[in-house]
Amino acid sequence: LACYVLVSFLIFNESEERWMDSIACLSLPILLKAEGLVMTTLGVSIILILKSQGSFKILNQTTKVLQVLLVPLLAFGAWKLHCAHYSIHNYLTNDISATLTKLFGRLTDGGKSINIFADGFGYYNKIIKILIYIALVRRLFIWRRITRFELGVLSFSVFYFLFLFFTYMATPFDLDWHLQTSIERTAFPIMLLSLVTLIIRHFDVPKTA
To answer: CA-to-CA distance for 132 and 126, rounded, in angstroms?
Structure first.
């Protein structure tokens, strides 16, 4: 899933006029996993915002965007209908009331759950801190404006992290157990995007936002 996001931002950074190709690439995660819909929504929104300059208006491009996303969305809808027919539901949406109760309860329990999340995310958090430190040190010696690719990836990573945070806060399972059994997989997109962004920045991609 992260690879599709990565390639889509690379395409957009290479040529802003290929924004539709980027969105076409972003449409594929919908077909793979439930969180793919979140990735697609975030990625498409960020690319449209980055593109919305001058005469380009987001609302005027809605039809084109929907045409590109139509087939994956129809396939996703058909799958959800099939699951509903056999009473197969996502653990977060099966009981919205219970999900919201868990979410608000953990957010207001004196920070205990947030600390558990921080510990579970700790391994990746340490690596991300190291990467950020390296990037900041390098910028002391080589200053240049952030590229569209870097801005897009940074925005995506921040919002996807928030999505993970609220998803774990709302989980009906034991939070510590859920983090231990899934955080390496779910946080991988953030790690991959961070690493590749630093590599690309090292080679000084010239296009600016």
So the answer is: 10
